Protein: 3-ketoacyl-CoA reductase
Organism: Cyprinus carpio carpio
Amino acid sequence: MRTGQLFLFPPRRLYEELGCWGMQRKREIEVVTGATDGIGKSYAEELARRGFSMMLISRSQEKLDDVAKSLESTYKVETKTIAVDYSHDDIYPKIEKGLAGLEIGVLVNNVGISYSYPEFFLHIPDLENFITTMINVNITSVCQMTRLVLPRMEARAKGVILNISSASGMFPVPLLTIYSSTKAFVDFFSRGLQSEYKCKGIIIQSVLPFFVATKMTKIRKPTLDKPTPERYVAAELNTVGLQDQTNGYFPHAVMGWVTTVLAPIKLVLCLGLRMNKAQRGGYLRRRKLR
Ligand SMILES: NC(=O)c1ccc[n+]([C@@H]2O[C@H](COP(=O)([O-])OP(=O)(O)OC[C@H]3O[C@@H](n4cnc5c(N)ncnc54)[C@H](OP(=O)(O)O)[C@@H]3O)[C@@H](O)[C@H]2O)c1
């Protein structure tokens, strides 16, 4: 369905609509979590380019200040920042205070972390903390940010929430099992919530990218199937309002179709296991050599 929809709808409408919002909604502010790097930074730039004021949220105040300054000087928009670490679950009163009184038009729940290398569940270093951290950053952040922002969207009967899941949430990925499971949660959460709030004028979209060339993936040379975050986000924004669930970028939509419609799940699991075992072996060998 995902890919079919992308084939059916030429990617153009929302791009124009978002532009219009920029003109109509000058008082609004758009919120991006994990906004200082990679995909989140690109969302912040794309939205600022359309004239939106931006609320940037990440861990490091220094990096937040750099991105905010760059958006203000390049796009002449207002920016605000909140520095919090999403691996903790006691940060939400601080975020609530920072968002108080603001009209939020778009929330991009982007913040997320993955493994530093693929690993068997019981071999993950510091497993107990790893589980808590990944659940807090990848799952709790999405639910809690939505809790803070959705009531005002519901009251105004408009708003957009983009939840950045992952293609790893479309099927289990062995040796990245916790990451893959957290991203499946984000996908289910988004789709369930979209059904609840669609009739109230709110768009909630589940975004499931394959590889994008960011710090997280350590991909330095972008290719057609592993695009830069800028290219990915520009394409993804074209699908907002057209697709509740999207791979966001045409080559990724084709990959999504192959892995979920064409290939049997047993084969996908087997190839994932083999690929990640090879990556794990390479990583551990390199680490021994150092
Ligand atoms: N890249 C891909 O191929 C890919 C594919 C599928 C899905 N995704 C998803 O897309 C999202 C963005 O990924 P990315 O590749 O752009 O990641 P990235 O390049 O590593 O950027 C992550 C951003 O999140 C912030 N961040 C990390 N940990 C944080 C924490 N504990 N508290 C607050 N902020 C934190 C980082 O800023 P600071 O370090 O300054 O805090 C940075 O701004 C994630 O949800 C990821 O799962 C990525």
